[in-house]
């Protein structure tokens, strides 16, 4: 279908456009290999978050030259909240095609799309050092609004006895709470509870980001769970409940691909709601989940987590569990 195209184009990609989607994923894989020591998204996962988004609010475009995809980007346009924002979760250029203006052309296209959607702020993420992202962002007038530290726990060398000791100590301080665990996507009966817990993530440090609180309900949670299932995301999760009231108090969750081929687990939300803090629920949930991974998920070898550099409490928990620093990222922001 590309024979009739002129030599250079920026084209929209949708789920039906298999050739363009395959090209975008191939560029992402090639760029990831040299830019990012963290986990690679599977093709199935990539086609959900990069082409349509977790809430059907993303659009993807690729740069095509002489029939070959040489770069691409994804633009998210939040609708339920933060309707002033546009987000670029991914912008990549094939390694052999860099320093030819392709990244700049893609970014300019993204800015046009964001402005057309009525957005005033554009946010993207890139490694702070060690890759082309930081230099590129600064050259285009973006400033670092937040700093996040990525840490990795190697389960193959983890100290099981230390996990058990930390779990037992935390459990003694969490009297009055009970745990509920599940594998895979969350059952519908938990969607309302998860909505409350997701909303609790609004307390997480956001630095200088021009961002509003997210608004969650059971319906939104259910839609997210469906998208995760479509993306092939499996996982282990635990909720802590206040025994006397049954109210959800805390959550931790680690995702991994259905096939487990890459060996990575991806730490998602860990949150303790404000009325339930001070009972070491975060430590209890994370150590319990880590032990579950050790016992029941042998294909998961490493767990990666992201935390704001200013979130010293959660990072201290990670340090005690044996997480080690991998790299540092910024969220880059610019008024458009």
UniProtKB/TrEMBL annotation:
Gene3D superfamilies per record: 3.40.630.30
Organism annotation: Spongiactinospora rosea
PANTHER family: AMINOALKYLPHOSPHONATE N-ACETYLTRANSFERASE-RELATED-RELATED, N-ACETYLGLUTAMATE SYNTHASE-RELATED
Protein's name according to its UniProt entry: GNAT family N-acetyltransferase
Cited Pfam families: Acetyltransf_1 (PF00583)
InterPro entries: Acyl_CoA_acyltransferase, Bact_Acetyltransf, GNAT_dom
SUPFAM superfamilies: Acyl-CoA N-acyltransferases (Nat)
N-acetyltransferase domain location: 11-170
Gene Ontology MF: a single term: acyltransferase activity, transferring groups other than amino-acyl groups
Keyword set, alphabetical order: Acyltransferase, Transferase
């Amino acid at each position: 279908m590309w024979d009739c195209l002129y030599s250079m184009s920026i084209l929209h990609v949708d789920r039906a456009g298999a050739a363009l989607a395959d090209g975008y994923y191939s560029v992402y894989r090639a760029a990831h290999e040299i830019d990012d020591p963290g986990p690679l998204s599977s093709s199935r996962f990539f086609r959900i978050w990069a082409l349509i988004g977790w809430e059907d609010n993303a659009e993807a475009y690729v740069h095509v030259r002489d029939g070959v995809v040489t770069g691409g980007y994804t633009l998210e346009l939040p609708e339920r909240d933060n309707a002033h924002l546009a987000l670029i979760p991914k912008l990549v250029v094939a390694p052999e095609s860099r320093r030819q203006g392709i990244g700049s052309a893609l970014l300019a296209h993204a800015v046009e799309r964001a402005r057309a959607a009525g957005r005033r702020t554009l946010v993207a993420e890139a490694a702070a050092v060690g890759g082309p992202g930081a230099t590129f962002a600064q050259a285009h007038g973006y400033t670092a609004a937040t700093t996040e530290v990525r840490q990795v726990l190697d389960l193959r060398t983890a100290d099981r006895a230390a996990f058990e000791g930390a779990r037992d100590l935390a459990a003694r301080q969490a009297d009055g709470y009970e745990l509920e665990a599940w594998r895979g996507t969350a059952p519908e009966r938990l969607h309302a509870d998860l909505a409350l817990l997701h909303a609790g993530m609004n307390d997480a440090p956001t630095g200088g980001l021009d961002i509003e609180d997210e608004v969650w309900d059971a319906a939104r949670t259910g839609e997210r769970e469906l998208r995760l299932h479509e993306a092939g995301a499996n996982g282990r999760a635990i909720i802590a409940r206040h025994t006397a009231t049954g109210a959800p108090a805390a959550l931790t969750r680690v995702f991994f691909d259905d096939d487990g081929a890459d060996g990575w687990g991806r730490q998602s939300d860990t949150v303790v709601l404000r009325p339930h803090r001070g009972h070491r629920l975060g430590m209890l949930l994370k150590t319990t989940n880590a032990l579950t991974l050790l016992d029941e998920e042998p294909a998961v070898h490493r767990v990666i987590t992201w935390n704001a550099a200013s979130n010293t409490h959660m990072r201290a928990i990670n340090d005690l569990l044996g997480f080690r620093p991998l790299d540092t990222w910024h969220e880059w922001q610019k008024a458009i």
